[in-house]
Amino acid sequence: MKKGEKRPETLLVTSGRKPDENHGIINPPVYHASTILHPTMKVLKEASQPYTYGRRRTPTIEALQEAMCELEGGHGCVITPSGLSAVSTALLANLKAGDHLLVTDSVYGPSRTFCEQMLTRYGVEVEFYDPLIGADIGLLMKDNTAVVFTETPGSQTFEVQDLPAISEAAHAKGAIVMLDNTWATPLFFDAFANGADISIQAATKYIVGHSDAMMGTITCNARTFKATLRGHGHLGVTAGPDDIYLALRGIRTMGVRLRQHMETGIALARWLEQRPEVKEVIHPALENHPGHAIWKRDFKGASGLFAAVLHPVPEKALAAMLDGLELFGMGYSWGGYESLIVPAEPHRSATEWKEEGPLLRIHAGLEHIDDLTADLDAGFARLNKEK
């Protein structure tokens, strides 16, 4: 580290805070604002004061933007009201009709839907690629390839992408590299050091951390910030101040929470590996995961989200297992303090998902590992009874 630099755990606590400017109050104030007054016509016309309209920027928005830039090492950041809106805003701001977009085949389902059903309507050519393609992404690049969209690990099936190799090949052809970095967060994966130009977070997950607000962030390098900021303004997307406050509050404890999610998630994955009902556990931190070597090279840790493939069972047996769980809730999203489990169905077009048994997406919350394994053990007993 350079002299004066702060470690990520410290930045989580200090970034975006200016108590000296707010009467010594520790947390940034929550500004509810639409109209912001200007003292003169000259200031109004030149937009020369720091804050001009509530949708554009307020001290509350600015605090989260500054925090994300410090954490990620980015040039600039914009805030959106959800993770999906962060994905769609980043893409719309950096693509135009006639462009070619490459998207990892393991991308988050709603991101895939947006690309297939919205971007194509506006003249963007969308092509999905094998997430394990690495440097061979260069073979898919065209003269009009504008963006390569990555997500590592991939949603539901957790393929670990070789982002440095993909980025080098994409940049050689002049394309922008976007990364959905929600799984690892800036604490466990440095998007910009590994070649991304734009880092996207569904801040709904680990940044908010308590399953009570939705939020998205788009952090950019200098090359991409101007276009992204302009597109964000044209689209009119903004997040409410109370939700931004919850994200700022959540970010302060993300370091300790994420370490516990990681510890419990790995312990739970290893426990599931020993179960006869489980065919495969898909977790990048496990030594037998196909992407473990890249994960170990590029990542500083793992979050609490992973998957398990069961041996084929009747649907009624799976329902008996899941319906009776006490600690694992069935609900979408993840990253909160509670454990979750849902059946998943990967959607693929460039690759093929060949597993016949049920795929379960699991999020390890902050409950005690022994209580979680006991809950699953009872669930497997119900499953076996209904086979």
From TrEMBL:
Entry-annotated residues carrying N6-(pyridoxal phosphate)lysine: 205
The terms under GO molecular function for this entry are: cysteine-S-conjugate beta-lyase activity; pyridoxal phosphate binding
**Region (Disordered), start-end ranges:** 1-25
Stored Pfam families: Cys_Met_Meta_PP
Biological process terms from the Gene Ontology for this record are: L-cysteine catabolic process to pyruvate; transsulfuration
Question: InterPro entries annotated for this entry?
Answer: Cys/Met-Metab_PyrdxlP-dep_enz (IPR000277), Cys_b_lyase_bac (IPR006233), Cys_met_metab_PP (IPR054542), PyrdxlP-dep_Trfase (IPR015424), PyrdxlP-dep_Trfase_major (IPR015421), PyrdxlP-dep_Trfase_small (IPR015422)
What reaction(s) does this enzyme catalyze? an S-substituted L-cysteine + H2O = a thiol + pyruvate + NH4(+); L,L-cystathionine + H2O = L-homocysteine + pyruvate + NH4(+)
Its keywords, alphabetically, are:
Lyase, Pyridoxal phosphate
Q: Which domain of life is it from?
A: Bacteria
* Cofactor(s) this protein cannot do without: pyridoxal 5'-phosphate
Listed pathway(s) = Amino-acid biosynthesis; L-methionine biosynthesis via de novo pathway; L-homocysteine from L-cystathionine: step 1/1
State the similarity comment: Belongs to the trans-sulfuration enzymes family.
Q: What is this protein called?
A: Cystathionine beta-lyase
Organism, per UniProt? Answer: Tepidicaulis marinus
